Amino acid sequence: xxxxxxxxxxSAMENIVTxxxxxxxxxxxxxxxxIFILLLTLTILTIWLFKHRRFRFLHETGLAMIYGLLVxxxxxxxxxxxxxxxxxxxxxxxxxxxxxxxxxxxxxxxEYTLKGEISTIEMDDVPDNEMLRKVTFxxxxxxxxxxxxxxxxxxxxxxxxxxxxxxxxxxxxAFLGTVLSCFVIGLLMYGCVMLMKQMRQLDGDFFFTDCLFxxxxxxxxxxxxxxxxxxxxxxxxxxxALLFGESVLNDAVAVVLSSSIVAYQPxxxxxxxxxxxxxxxxxxxxxxxxxxxxxxxxxxxxVTFTKLRDFQLLETALFFLMSWSTFLLAEACGFTGVVAVxxxxxxxAHYTFNNLSAESQDRTKQLFELLNFLAENFIFSYMGxxxxxxxxxxxxxxxxxxxxxxxxxxRAANIYPLSFLxxxxxxxxxxxxxxxxxxxxxLRGAMTFxxxxxxxxxxxxxxxxxxxxxxxxxxxxxCGGGTTPMLSCQRIRVGVDSDQDNPVSVLLTxxxxxxxxxxxxxESAWLFRIWYNFDHNYLKPILTHSGPPLTATLPPCCGPLAxxxxxxxxxxxxxxxxxDDSDLILSDGHINLTYGDVxxxxxxxxxxxxxGPAYPGATGSDDLDRELTYGDHELVMRGTRLKHVCPxxxxxxxx
Length: 655
Fold this sequence. Notes:
The protein is mainly alpha-helical. It contains 27 helices and six strands. 65% of the residues lie in helices and 5% in strands.
């Protein structure tokens, strides 16, 4: 044949080979994803078995990690990919490693992309490494896809009543505590690294800024396991609020702190000397990024103004996309998505939630709960997998031991001194057994992992990543598994306070604590009281359809503006105020409580009256106790609503 026809045959053959390769690669990718889906399925089935057997020692995240580890072992040591004969190693002297290469193969140009450096030992195992690399995700996947639902759900499902009641303490633990912990861990690790240098155990550079970075990422606590057990056992709500509030906010603080440490750049050649200006610049960046992200999150949370009540599916979809875009918008603007999406969640739960139709309210709650569950378990099973599939692990026994000691000392430096200082000003003291429990429950999890895997380029970062994995495994299995024994050891009461306050306990509390209510009012921080009144009278009516209409709260001179800003729905809702926060600040006005057909009102003095008998013979407040003991189950079934008494309603009619 002619040279032209043989060239055509060659190119046809090449096309067939390329198609086959593409198909094989597609199959391989599907198989890799299938591994993760099966891991999650296996985890869910085992959790069901555990819940069925009331087995509390291992939480689903710990389980996901164990399954991840097993699959990692199989992938690493059990499966070998045959060598591809077409792989050729050619040497070419180039001074730098370009991101893309154009290679001229007999007149045709091919583009190759850079995957990363491989050591000389790995030269023979290229196919195996390729397979392991396939099951290793791009860290950005964690940051942009798996982390937002977890953080948003934390803000969206925040139990605001207990959170705000302990607001000061939570902020102290989250801001001061995390910074303290970061510096304690950083200094201890620096000592450890200096010792390793003396003993010739270091093979690369390790600077003080690296140690501080390690301190920042290890300070992010994630006690999912502990909180799940607390929820199940109904542990004291204040302890739950302190732990949950701290873990939610300190994730945000740790992210901003770590990025500020990375941004620390002194002038001149030596970038690792101490310089006051560079330190102040980093501190300024910390404040700027945090407040910027906070403002962005709150702004998008408020802007999510859905008027699509008639089309629930569209409404839920818009709500979901707005929440996700907050994260990406903040990252694109150079702020921190984690902080933005957290405050967006809190704002949306407070305002936007009231504007959604009833169906969308349920839908969004369930949707974010599901996404949170899947993302969290995916990250934990992936953690188990990377212990074996990650290519550049550096396990240094001395560094690991140092990290464990530093982690516990850092946690202690966060909890004990701050609790002592907070107790000086708190009326409801943080008891010592609560402090020990908080110290014990400082688990490390998804956030620590996502921050450490984000950059594994240098020797120091690789060693940190390997150590971080071990810290997460240890805290989730040992501290998470030891939660129930620890609760009984510290004699912390369980089954005390369910979040869906039992109707009977609400009634009895209202009746017994009438006199105490004024002290509670004093206890609510004055700043928060001012904010609450402003929010209740002006912000909620503008941003939602709940709260009193503006026509009632604004001075008469602003009448036209108030009428313009008040929606028709707000007038309709006037007599049935849906205000979640009415129990944050107990005002001196009346509070009304309905159980099916009984209405109990308590006024500021704590006196109570009841109307509309629910059971034969139960007529007045004297018989209330008898009623409660006698119809307990029915009361619980009928449900409870705690309400402000509206001016236009004296008692709420029965069913």
